[in-house]
Amino acid sequence: MKITSYYTENENDVKYIFSLMHKLYKLGKRIYLKTNNVVEQEVLSELFWKFRTFLPHGTTEDQYQELQPVLVSGMEFEDYIAEKPKAAESNKDCNQEHQAFSTLIIYRHPNQYTESMINKVSGKDISGSLSEVIFWNPDQHKNRMMLVGKVWIQQGINWVELKKAD
Predict the structure, then answer these.
(1) Local structure of 52: helix, strand or coil
(2) Element (H, E) at 132
(3) What is the pLDDT of residue 13?
(4) 85, 154, 158, 165: most buried by Cβ count inside 10 Å?
(5) Which GO terms describe its biological process (predicted)?
(6) For the chain, where are the alpha helices, taking DSSP H only?
(7) Residue 161 to residue 46: CA distance in whole angstroms
(8) Taking CA 59 as the corner, what is the angle to CA 50 and CA 29, rounded to the nearest 5 degrees?
(9) Residue 28 lies in domain
């Protein structure tokens, strides 16, 4: 599983996360964006509709969430996957099959949560067909993150990969 971390000190990091998700969407990835809570989920979803570039997305509050290529959620990924059969059952009238998530993005979470997710990802405790986990602006976790994947830091308008020390 590919693990990547992105750090930006830019106050308006929403446009950068949107750009990253749009690129992943164009590559055919199905994305689960894990937010801290339902309020942040709704704020991000609303902001994503305001960009010039269209990114089809929804939230866990939407009726046909299992068909969304990008799902913004305050719900734990594992809990959502466990609830998936119930969601599919409630939408029997929809005859399209859903695609499994390939990318999990964890957006601005505190150290304890990030540490827990690193352990789950490293220990392969995350279910499903995930091929990639992205940590977006985790709280000052640079040293630990370097041990488990690539780390990118924004410098001005450029992204620079931090190289691991040998």
Answers:
(1) coil
(2) strand 132-136
(3) 81
(4) 154
(5) DNA replication
(6) 14-26, 38-48, 77-90, 111-122, 142-146
(7) 31
(8) 85
(9) 2-90+97-162
Tokens of 130: 């995930």
CB atoms inside a 10 Å sphere around CB 134: 23
- Look at residues 76, 78, 35 and name the one whose alpha carbon lies nearest to residue 57: 35
Q: Are strands 158-162 and 150-155 parallel, antiparallel or unpaired?
A: antiparallel
Tell me the CATH number at 11: 3.40.50.10110
Q: Could you report the per-residue pLDDT of 95-143, keeping only the tens digit for each? A: 445 578 899 998 877 666 766 776 676 665 565 678 888 888 766 555 5
User: Shortest CA distance to 113 belongs to which of 71, 154, 74?
Assistant: 74
How many Cβ atoms are within 10 Å of 27's Cβ, its own excluded? 9
pLDDT digits (tens, 9 = 90+) for 11-62: 678 888 899 999 999 999 999 999 989 999 999 999 999 988 999 999 988 8
Rounded-to-5 percentages of helix, strand, coil across the chain: 35, 20, 45
| Type of residue found at 8 | T
* Tally of structural domains, the chain: 1
Give the Cα separation of 7 and 16 in Å (integer).
Answer: 11
